[in-house]
Amino acid sequence: MKSAVIIPTCGRKSLLPRLIAHLEQQTRRPDLVLISAPDTTHVEMTRSDQFEVAYIFGKQGLTAQRNQALQKALPGHDVVVFFDDDFLPDNDYLCLLELAFAAHPDWAAITGDVVRDDICGAGLSFDEGLRALDQSQSKPPRLPLATQELSAYGCNMAFRAADVGDLRFDERLPLYGWQEDVDFSTQVGRRGQIIRLNTLRGVHLGIKSGRVSGVRFGYSQIVNPLYLIRKGTVPPRKGLALMARNVVANVMRSIWPEAYIDRRGRLRGNLLAAYHVLQRRIEPEHILNL
Predict the structure, then answer these.
(1) 146 and 228 co-located in one domain
(2) pTM for this one?
């Protein structure tokens, strides 16, 4: 199988060279690594003597950047892998991924096991992430466990190219594109199983730079699930529960907010979104005006 790794990035220029060097440690190296960024100011044009690295520019926003990379990655590749620019895969990730796809032709998508995820914390440094990976490797080997899921986790998800076909990420979910991974992988899941494989391990640093404002994210916390419920890619019970948890967290923690989360901004975004929903306006792209 030929595999292409897509890494969308924005505002994290210093991170990419270390990530590319980390990918060079893979026991099965990718055939192509595609860096998708709005323009050259967001990247250092790093190369590798282990695999081809290509850069593609022109669009901003997670869904748009993923789509522009998909256009180049799908022809000539059997597997397309999406890594966040702050996700560190274990060194055997791509090898085990290829073996899994080869052994299970009915698997359309595979997502790995995040052994440390600081997306809700202050964020890990690159070196802290490497240490977390080392700690997971020092534990006894795991028995392979494949669990069928409803959707994949966006920081690390792989798709069989034939099952992606003409599907694309929904660009009505702009900028951070919150829940875009659920929307896309759910649609791919209609063509084959979505599997979480515990032997594919990695660390999600959860770096806070390059993310959208608290107000914009809070708006997306309400509008994006409702939009996807109406679209039919998120079950109503799951979407409404997600919205409720986020609103409660923002209300409770806005009194003593974490230093690394703009809780009051998120709450303002929640309230603005609720006002628009009452007006029957469910428009995820409105965050571009905030």
Answers:
(1) no
(2) 0.94
